[in-house]
């Protein structure tokens, strides 16, 4: 590289630099009281607004801040100039623009800010995964700072789509108790006409290594998977589940979750949301009126009815904390999952693997709610961003032309009966749909663990609805070594894979979708169980038990397991109880008391340690969320608790220093 190479072919017109400009024409709409009483920041803000091209006569409308997760740069035709991280934020700016235009129509003043988000699919199996979950807290902080940094905003619209950006946005907006806020879900991408969905396509490496597909098949299928350029993945993973939760909370308008990105109905949703938030501002409806204990319970019920991602067990408690509501406990989750039937047949759970766009056309969240209201499972008196109660929204939906036409469209376009995508409880039960989540405990997981029991392959579940597996442990202290074993034949039917050190202190609580997806699509995978202190992608399926607590690096028993240990797993998919226990080694079986004593007295695995590449940023996140209650409280930052611990630590250090000085 040389200077001439960098600076070659400069046109002389570049040097014709202006040193002043006339400035905007017109006058600011000031009155004496504004000059006397307003802070200088408010007044200078008006100068900034006209400096950016806004007409002075239009300055005094309702100011609405639109925050989005936009990533990448598109030209005016939508072609890429610079790629984003993922399709989920590629078209978010279109929604933001639609909302802004609607605000302008109503004489408001729109502002926009961006905090982009990472892609869990892109970072699977890489060091990028160590930043995935911690990013959520960081982004929520930045969103809150951006909201507060525009003191004149009177309402906030959050536009987001995917696994961490949307939970971060919901957490941030939940904190804005006295502001009108609304979520615009970013929608979903379409599946290829012929090909594989974005969940299955992430297994091409493992399937090729096991000679399940050819190089040509991998290359062709990989090219097709993201059939349209925008929106979250086509399955009910964390992105889609988060959209469902936003609508279920009442903080997104009726039938807004899972709309197909880039299409007219998706764009119109942004305009409808802009009108709704302007009405909220006019009628003094704020976030604290929407997000209540009842609204959060409604969201948990919808999570169960959809069969949603287990990652929402990390996000819903966090937004409840931000909203100053009751934080759901494991007992709350168990109670709701026991009484709520799963009603939606969708990727990845099945039984029919419909993409999320079909769920939208079948009626989406409000259609599922129609069934749930008949069961008396919803709080219909909660207020929503439409300005109406949930019950009033459902009354409208049931008789709406929108509902009738979209359900008809699903039958015309795909030949699919909408009532086979979103089922009534009797049909769902007859089709074998079971409730969503079980929380196994045992001497390996004394604080508990999580399994999406509804997604265990039904062929390995007993006629009594119970999954039972007793197998020999194969222990891994990193996801990398575990996926290598799968690809090289080191895992066989009947094994129990133990992946330790994947909790917050070890990896930032990484997702292990590489492992779960490979097991799903390899022929022997349904006969393998996986237990880990890490977490799973929302699209994960199978006998996979995660979130094991305490984590290995906090002296959790999982960190003391060894190759050859006998592990006994039981998951009752009907009654939602389960256990995961160490019961001996080799041919020696132990009583429950003996086995527990062995784990208590064992040393930790000699190879167990935090990943050497764990970023300092993530180490700090892990420490802060740990003293705030850890993953079972949503990995939040409880500032009062953190300060209390810091003060106690300072006093202890001072006392220690004093004893040394003597």
TrEMBL record:
Higher taxonomy: Bacteria, Bacillati, Bacillota, Bacilli, Bacillales
Protein name per the record: YjhG/YagF family D-xylonate dehydratase
Family stated for the protein in its record: Belongs to the IlvD/Edd family.
Residue ranges of every copy of the Dihydroxy-acid/6-phosphogluconate dehydratase C-terminal domain listed in the record: 435-577
Keywords on record: 2Fe-2S, Amino-acid biosynthesis, Branched-chain amino acid biosynthesis, Iron, Iron-sulfur, Lyase, Metal-binding
Pfam families: ILV_EDD_C, ILVD_EDD_N
Entry superkingdom: Bacteria
EC identifiers of the protein: 4.2.1.82
Keyword Cell wall biogenesis/degradation: no
Record domain Dihydroxy-acid/6-phosphogluconate dehydratase N-terminal: where: 86-393
A GO MF term: xylonate dehydratase activity
């Amino acid at each position: 590289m040389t200077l001439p190479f960098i600076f070659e072919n400069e046109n002389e017109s570049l040097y014709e630099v202006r040193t002043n400009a006339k400035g905007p024409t017109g006058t600011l709409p000031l009155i004496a009281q504004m000059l006397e009483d307003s802070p200088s920041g408010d007044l200078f803000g008006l100068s900034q607004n006209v400096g950016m091209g806004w007409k002075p006569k239009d300055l005094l409308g309702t100011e609405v801040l639109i925050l989005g997760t936009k990533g990448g740069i598109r030209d005016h035709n939508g072609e890429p100039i610079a790629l984003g991280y993922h399709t989920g934020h590629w078209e978010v700016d279109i929604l933001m623009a639609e909302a802004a235009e609607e605000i302008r129509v109503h004489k408001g003043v729109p502002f926009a800010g961006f905090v982009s988000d990472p892609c869990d699919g892109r970072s699977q199996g890489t060091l990028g995964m160590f930043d995935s979950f911690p990013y959520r807290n960081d982004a929520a902080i930045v969103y809150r700072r951006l909201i507060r940094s525009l003191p004149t905003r009177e309402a906030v619209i959050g536009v987001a789509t995917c696994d961490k950006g949307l939970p971060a946005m919901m957490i941030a907006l939940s904190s804005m108790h006295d502001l009108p806020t609304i979520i615009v879900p970013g929608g979903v991408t379409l599946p290829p006409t012929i090909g594989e969905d974005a969940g299955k396509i992430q297994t091409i490496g493992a399937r090729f290594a096991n000679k399940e597909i050819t190089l040509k098949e991998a290359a062709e299928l990989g090219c097709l998977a993201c059939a349209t350029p925008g929106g979250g993945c086509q399955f009910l993973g964390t992105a889609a589940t988060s959209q469902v939760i936003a609508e279920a909370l009442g903080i997104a308008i009726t039938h807004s979750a899972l709309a197909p990105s880039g299409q007219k109905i998706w764009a119109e949703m942004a305009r409808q949301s802009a009108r709704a938030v302007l009405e909220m501002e006019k009628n003094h409806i704020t976030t604290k009126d929407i997000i209540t204990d009842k609204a959060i319970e409604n969201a948990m019920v919808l999570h169960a009815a959809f069969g949603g991602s287990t990652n929402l067990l990390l996000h819903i408690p966090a937004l409840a904390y931000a909203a100053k509501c009751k934080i759901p406990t494991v007992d709350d989750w168990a109670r709701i999952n026991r009484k709520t039937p799963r009603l939606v047949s969708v990727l990845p759970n099945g039984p029919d693997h419909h993409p999320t766009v079909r769920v939208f056309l079948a009626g989406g969240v409000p259609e599922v709610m129609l069934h749930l209201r008949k069961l008396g499972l919803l709080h219909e008196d909660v207020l929503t961003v439409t300005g109406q109660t949930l019950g009033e929204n459902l009354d409208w939906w049931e008789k709406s032309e929108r509902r009738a036409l979209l359900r008809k469209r699903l039958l015309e376009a795909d030949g699919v009966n909408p009532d086979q995508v979103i089922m009534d409880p009797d049909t769902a039960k007859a089709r074998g749909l079971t409730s969503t989540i079980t929380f196994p405990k045992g001497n390996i997981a004394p604080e508990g663990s999580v399994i999406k029991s509804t997604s265990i392959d039904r062929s390995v579940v007993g006629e009594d609805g119970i999954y039972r597996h007793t197998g020999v442990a194969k222990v891994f202290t990193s996801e990398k070594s575990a996926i290598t074993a799968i690809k090289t034949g080191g895992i066989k039917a009947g094994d129990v894979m133990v992946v330790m050190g994947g909790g917050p202190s070890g990896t930032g609580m990484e997702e292990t979708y590489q492992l779960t997806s490979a097991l799903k699509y390899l022929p022997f995978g349904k006969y393998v169980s996986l237990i880990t202190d890490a977490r799973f992608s929302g699209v994960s399926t199978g006998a996979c038990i995660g979130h094991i607590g305490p984590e290995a690096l906090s002296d959790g028993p999982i960190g003391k397991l060894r190759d050859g240990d006998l592990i006994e797993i039981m998951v009752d998919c009907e009654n939602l109880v389960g256990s995961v226990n160490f019961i001996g080694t080799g041919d020696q079986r132990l009583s429950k008391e003996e086995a527990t004593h062995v784990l208590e007295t064992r040393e930790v695995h000699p190879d167990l340690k935090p990943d050497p590449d764990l970023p300092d940023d993530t180490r700090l996140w892990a420490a802060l969320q740990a003293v705030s209650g850890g993953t079972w409280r949503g990995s939040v930052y409880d500032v009062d608790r953190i300060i209390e611990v810091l003060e106690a630590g300072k006093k202890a250090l001072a006392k220690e220093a004093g004893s040394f000085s003597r």
